[in-house]
Amino acid sequence: MGGVDLMLSFPSLLLGLAAVTVFSPSTTTLIAVLSFVSLPHFARIVRARCLEVRELEFVLSARISGVPSFMIVLKHLLPNVLPLMMVQLANSAAIVILLESALSYLGLGVQPPTPSWGRMIAEAQNYLTDSPWLVLGAGGALLLSSVAWGLIGEGFAISRRSVV
User: Fold this and answer.
1) Backbone angles phi, psi at 113, to 5 degrees
2) Number of Cβ within a 10 Å radius of residue 136
3) Which of 113, 124, 121 is closest to 27 using CA atoms?
4) Cα separation, 164 vs 54, whole angstroms
5) What is the spatial distance between Cα 101 and Cα 142, in angstroms, rounded to a whole number?
6) Which of 53, 32, 61, 68 is nearest to 163 (CA)?
7) Which tens digits make up the pLDDT trace of 116-139?
8) Whole-angstrom distance, CA of residue 86 vs CA of residue 88
9) Share of the chain above pLDDT 70, in %
């Protein structure tokens, strides 16, 4: 967890910018970098929930009755961690969309001809005074998609039922 804390101490955009600069800016590199940047959040959530659930009575009774550790993880820990992971997945999707757009805006995201809202905004800036709808269209789509993923995450959080 020390490595996870170290990764969380740096801003995600800065880590992504450094990694994409060191490696060639491509779709594969971008996917790997964005996954790597999102991983610490998942690790902390899963660890915290597992530490909480492992001390509950039903897990202790399963351990005392001789159930193998693998079965305890499969039947007790995993069903209690999965709802939290779904919430984090939806919230991370919104963050990853914004990070990808920021890197593409700077020219370090996916390369042409693959479309990207960040690159669309960067290219439309030259026409901002004549055709502001070009920036507003890409920016609006970016805003709506990130808000939608955030709302999906909130929906998961509200409807999350603990199996405990």
Assistant:
1) -90, 10
2) 14
3) 113
4) 11
5) 8
6) 53
7) 999 999 999 999 889 899 999 999
8) 5
9) 97
Q: pTM value?
A: 0.82
Whether the ω angle into residue 83 lies within 30 degrees of 0, i.e. cis, is no
Residue 91 and residue 147 in contact, taking contact as beta carbons nearer than 8 Å? no
Cα 31 to Cα 109: distance, rounded to the nearest angstrom: 10
Q: Over the chain, what is the mean pLDDT? A: 88
pLDDT band at 161 (very low <50, low <70, confident <90, very high): low
Residue 162 token pair: 């603990």
Q: Are 115 and 124 in contact (CB under 8 A)?
A: no
Q: Which residues contact 117 (CB under 8 A, 6 or more apart)?
A: 101, 104, 138, 139, 141, 142
